[in-house]
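fwd from M.: "can u put these together and see what the complex looks like"

so here's what she sent:
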Amino acid sequence: MNHLPLIIKREYLTKVKNKSFIVMTFLSPIIFIAFIAIVAYLAQMNNDKTRVVSILDESGLIKDVFKNSENTSYNYLEGMSLNDAKMLVQESEGYGLLYISEVSEEHLNSKNITFYSEESPSLTLISALESEIQSELTLQNRIKEGIDVEKLKASIVSIDINQESFEGEKTSKVDSVVKLIFGGAAGYLLFMFIIIYGNMIMRSVIEEKTSRIIEVIISSVKPVQLMLGKIIGTSLAGITQFVVWIILGGVLMTVASLILGIDISQMQTPQQQLVEQAMENPEINMQIQNIFTAFFNLPLANLIIAFILFFICGYLLYSSFYAAIGAAVDNETDTQQFMLPIILPLVLAVYIGIFTVIEDPHGTVSTIFSFVPLTSPVVMLMRIPFGVPLWQQILSLLILIGTFMLTVWFAAKIYRVGILMYGKKPSYKELIKWIKY
Amino acid sequence: MNNLLEVNNVSKYFGAFKALNDVSITIPKGSIFGLLGPNGAGKTTLIRVINQITMPDQGTVILDGEPLSQKHIMDIGYLPEERGLYKSMKVGEQAIYLAQLKGLSKAEAKKRLKYWFDRLEIGDWWNKKIQELSKGMAQKIQFVVTVLHEPKLLIFDEPFSGFDPINANLIKDEILRLRENGATVIFSTHRMESVEELCDDIALIHKSNKILDGKLVDVKRQYKINTYQVGIRANNQSELEKQLSEKFKVSKANFKTLEDELKLNIKLQEGENPNDLLSYLTSKGSISHFVELIPSVNDIFIQAVKSN
């Protein structure tokens, strides 16, 4: 008799009806969005305060270079000594003092420029000042040397090398970034999913053991069926939770940005601002268009199918480990010693994904680890956007499925013996003995 | 087919440890079978083999004429010693789920549960969670769940633990009623007085071996010690005692009587007849008490385990 659907249904309903599960499902996105909104709001408040930067330029070279911006205003000081200027700024509680000492212009360099402030100044501000002074001095130098600035500007050529594979597939740098984000997101999602819901499976197995219902249940169903039912039921509950999170998160994000008037999606970290300042790309629209083309250039069908297959197999592989651990121990504190062998390959996979796949998606290390069953789901998912030959994908999947069946068999053995063992904390040696029972 | 269950030469190893050694038992249809043994003897392992929770390394189990297989799960109802229910699940939901696992349809399960809940007067627990119930209450539900699918074979491991005397009696009557309706019962317990009261057959397992089995009366016959408890009044009781101890193997007995009689246990030798003893005693005084001493299951248990 097949009780699998019945067990799945019970596991699913028990999880979904559980109070703390419901609270987590609805509270997490609220907390998350509230957190982002608060950070964004605070950052904006911080930016809203106009900082006054005083400038004492004894060289007289960079007058009128700085223009007041939304959150910084410049105040030129004249005819006073450095000490007076410092005191003045300090007393007026200005943000800081940019001091350029008097020198002959040939020698104006970093040594002559100092920024004085109460506390260490903002990185963004300093780099803004640097880039302004730099371009002003460069310009002055060019004029002095008799270079036609207009001609020079017109002569600058911007190059974006077209990339094309021998089969005629076109790619670009933007493509690579989009691919990276896609692969990374897929791999990371799997990683998170395994950790969160694997633990949930483990806890539910332990609960069955501690409530001593297990013997009643397995006098009716095979332990393997119970284990698979648990894994599938819990996973479905997990997917439900994920979907709610995404929908609720999206809605809340929109609501929050409307209410607070903050464009959260436009929130930038100082690093991003630096990058953009450095690039000063006039063709932002062009970039966005490129991203869209890149997105549609991805092997989407392949990506989606591979994502589903690798995600399911990878998740099932790990969750059978979690189920076996849950069966082997009496309470959650005893699980620690068995967690390392699970977490280690997962973390390894993510690191390989982040460091090696980016550098060289088809290199030896990336290729090997996209076949090793414990790391392949994550690594392969990260590699696929860069175009992996079909035979490699199929081979890797077959290895994964083979290993999965082996682990389920192995986990079921431990599970079968473990669920009826009480009172002692098993060692690895004992687990191996159980397999032989 | 007079035997519902036949366990033939079953052995089970856990690594180097032998949990069952060549154990065979037969359980007649419609009987209550007492499975006895000290702690750790292998009773639970044997019960798990019958339930197909553990597979035997050697030997076979025949249920109702067929080798044990997956389909027999519906024919067995098992109340394990280590028992429990899902704590946060509602009583009704949980009972239906467990009944469905035994192959009942949802509607059928509901109907039968209603009957049983009314019968045991626990109908108003339907929507309560297990964690809100006392241990005894949960035990009652566990009992209902065990018998709900009307299995041919019922296995109860310490069924009365956790019950007050009233409820224990209630459950005992239900077990007897189920037997009358055709079920066969395996009953594992350390309470010898309930074995005495309920069981038709017993088997005793000690250190992984079966050391004793058969009909309870046969076992008792086998262990009978040919001893009679006697109460007699005579003019000179100490003289009589002396005479008797010369003729028979005599020891002091202890039981309640109305007068101050001479109370003795008298053991007959092989070939001696109780009637001869009785007529000898009548000639010596007036007899107020003459009973054959039948060994209790408790005595048999202790004697059998100690001699092995």
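replying to her w this: The CA atoms of residues 139 and 145 of chain A lie 10 Å apart.
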